[in-house]
Amino acid sequence: MFTEHKSVFLFVDSLWSRAPGRASLLIQEEEVKEVKEVECVFSRQTVRRTESRRSFGESERGKNCFQYWRTQKEDFAMSWGTELWDQFENLDKHTQWGIDFLERYAKFVKERLEIEQNYAKQLRNLVKKYCPKRSKDEEPRFTSCLSFYSILNELNDYAGQREVVAEEMAHRVYGELMRYSQDLKAERKHHLQEGRKAQQHLDHCWKQMDNSKKKFERECREAEKSQITYERLDNDINATKSEVEKAKAQFYMRTHSADESKNEYAAQLQSFNAEQWKHFHSAIPQIFKNLQNMDERRTVKLGETYRSFAEAERRVIPIISKCLEGMVSAAKAVDERRDSAIVVESFKSGFEPPADFPFEDFSQNLSRTGSDGTISNTPKGDKDRDRDGAPGPRSDPKHPMSRTKNKLWLFGKKPKWSVKMAPSLEDFSHLPPEQRRKRLQQRIDELNRELQKEMDQRDALNKMKDVYEKNPQMGDPNSLQPKISETICNMEKLRSEIHKNETWLSEVEGKQSSRGDRRHSADNHHHGPQGRESPEGSYTDDTSQEHHTPHHRPGPAQPRHPNPDPHEFDDEFDDDDPLPVIGHCKALYSFDGQNEGTLVMAEDEVLYIIEEDKGDGWTRARKQSGEEGYVPTSYVEITLEKNSKGS
Length: 647
Known about the structure:
Keywords: Cell membrane, Coiled coil, Cytoplasm, Cytoskeleton, Endocytosis, Lipid-binding, Membrane, SH3 domain
GO molecular function: lipid binding
CATH topology of the domain at 81-132 and 140-336: Substrate Binding Domain Of Dnak, Chain:A, Domain 2
Protein name: Formin binding protein 1-like
Strand content: under 5%
Organism: Oreochromis niloticus (Nile tilapia)
Radius of gyration: 60 Å
Pfam families: FCH, HR1_TOCA, SH3_9
Structural class: mainly alpha
């Protein structure tokens, strides 16, 4: 626009210059009109160009061009080659610092991932410590325990995610940084070597130029000296012609050498200036630009690794959140009511609480000296028995009630129904009724599962046999017959075992139901001693059976056949529930057990002790088949469990 207006003004000035002085006012009207027309044309063109530039600037392409131009201008202003052309040593130090900083960050990442690895390892050891391996029977069933082990499992998964974080940091951050650091060191070394070579070349050019300069200076001084000598001899009338000619020749020679040195110096100076311009405007800017690009790429790589460092943590956050949600769900799953019910289910023995003690009247054999109206403390039921002439009960140290007075427990010594007290019996008769019923039911379920597996295997073998019969080329059908026979045999054994265990289970359930009926009867007749359960869990329905116990058992000091009272063992074997095993014994001699209540045993046979010798020479024992009875104490070698002694 300014160029166009300048053209108009020059044209006007040219018109005014045609008429000097006042005559310039007499411009022809045609020329003035021509000037106005030219001004209008240039004005319209200027407006159109201004509008086009404004529309181009508002367009997307124009914005991109202006942005590119601005970026190029900023890049040119921030270029190390132009701004830091004389800072080679500082750039050397800066690039070395950048690589050292990158390696320092890599060391930080390495220590961080080691912390993650150690943390995960300690968490796994903690989980392993508090979640030891257990057998199937010892698995916890309480909701609090199950929730705790669920939390341990979630914590183990959490530890796995910490290991994932450490692995991601090791591969994506630390390993990448170490490889990139080696590449940076090699690239930096290459660029610095190029810079030093360029500087050495420039120094060499400068030395050549400086040598030519010094030579030119030296030749000029020699030429001046020869000139002075020549002029002095030429003006001296006493000098000979040969001397003057010689001085003149020397002067010409020195002058010629000075001219040659001058030309050489000029050439070397021109060459050095060209090399210096090339060094500071081409070579060094390019080297410094490469160093700048290398340093910027290092900065970008650091930013990327910072992001990768955070992303390694962010990727596992959803899984860690699920682990924490699992812990919260496990905490919500704790149910105190269910735990209480499990305690009842686990330790319920099936026995009933002991009934009241009967009154034992020790004064019935005393002669009455008082009047008939004497107040007696004898219960009414005992008075009726006295009037009927029934003999009163007598105290007997061997009476079952006397023997079990130490076993009356709510807070006394409770029999420990544990499998650890004695070797486990096949029918679990050493356990309390309720626990025995559960164990039998559990065994039946396991046997049914095994039976189902055998049946599935039999069906599969039969199908395979049918296929072989239809397609003999696939195999021999007779080769499967031994396996089928073995499977059928296993099925028969399992069915036999199931039937046997179901028999024992029905026996236990029948005893529990009969005991429940007796308890109901005892609740209805609580004022009498009938239907009372002994503290050991055995029932005595008859008062005569409850109080009339044998007064003497022959103690077999040597192998002989005892002859006890026929009613001696009645009260001992009316128990609905078996007594707990308190030890075991080994038969030293054989015993035929012909009398009622005794137990037949063979020499070296092992029996379970369920009642100790009370001083009468007899020990109550049980065979592995479940048969119970008394054996002579002197015939056996007894070993009692520590927990059962003195109970």
